[in-house]
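retry 2 of 3: previous attempt timed out while embedding magnesium ion. Reduced batch size to 1 and resubmitted. Inputs unchanged:
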Amino acid sequence: MMADPVTIVVKWSGKEYTVSDLSQENTVGELKEAIKSQTGVLPERQKLLGLKYKGKSPDDDVALSALKLKPNTKIMMMGTREETIQAIMEPPKDIGEVVDDFDIEEEEVLIENREENLQKIARRVKDYEIKILNPPRPGKKLLVLDVDYTLFDHRSCAETGVELMRPYLHEFLTAAYEDYDIVIWSATSMKWIEAKMKELGVTGNPNYKLTFILDSAAMITVFTQKYGVVETKPLGVVWGKFEEYSSKTTIMFDDIRRNFLMNPQNGLRIRPFREAHLNRQHDKELLKLSKYLKNIASLDDFSHLNHKHWEKYRPESSS
Ligand code: MG
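retry 2 succeeded.
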C-alpha cells in the first residue's frame, strides 16, 4: 500500500507554515523536526495545540496515522526560538497573539482546584522572592496590573516609551491608589519591567506608589485538556505571601484571559491597547475602568461581581 501523504498547516507567531513532506507513517517527533526546519523552533521547545491522541497531547513516537488527521489539518504552535530566549531584554513574544484567547470556562473550576497546580503555587509562595517597594497599607484592596497591551503598547515603534503609553495611565493609577495597593505583574523579566516602569514615569511618581512587582518567574504552567500547557498568573502566590490580601478584595487586569485561569473570578479582561499611534487619541479604557474601581471600592467582598460585565455595573444594582 502506498503511504498516504499528510499535509499539516502550523500557525505560529501570526504566520502559517505548511508541512507537506510527511506521510501517515511518520511520527509526531518527525513532524516536530519538519516544523523545526521551517520555523527554527527546537522540537523540545514546541507546544503543538490541536494534536490529540487518546485525549491528550501525543508522545513523539506516536504515528501520525493514529491521530486521524483530516487533510490540511491546522494546528497551532507555541514555542520560542533559542536565540530569542537568550535575548531577555527584548520585549516578549506574547503567545496571546499566536493562540486565540480561547474560552476555557467549563474547565476553569477544575484547573484552579487541581492538586498539582496548587502545589506549584505553594512552591512559588515558598521560593519566589518579592521585593517590597512600598509596604501594604491597612484596609486597602489590591489591584494587579499586566503591562503589555494593558498599560503600554510594546510592539509599536517610538522614540520614547511615553508615546506608547496607554492614555490616562497616570490619572488611572492616581485614582486607583486611593483605594487599592497597586502591583504590576508582567510575563517578562524583572529588568525589563523595571525599565519600562521607569520610562513611563510610574516609578517615582509623586501621586501614587507601587507596592511590588512580579515577573514571569512568579507564574506557573497549567495543563488544560483542550489546549495543552499554558502559562498563568496565579494570585494565590500573592495571597500566600501576604495576609493583607485575599481573593475577596483583589482584582486583576489583563488583556489575556488565560492568565486568570487559576483565579477566574478575580480577572477583568481589558481590551488590548495596540497601535498606539492610531489609538492614542481615542482609547478611554483606563478612564472608564477607574470609575469601575471607584464604584466597587466600598464593597467588602468582590466575590459576587462578574467583571465581564464591568461596563454595565451600577453601584445601586449590587448590594
Ligand atoms: Mg498583556
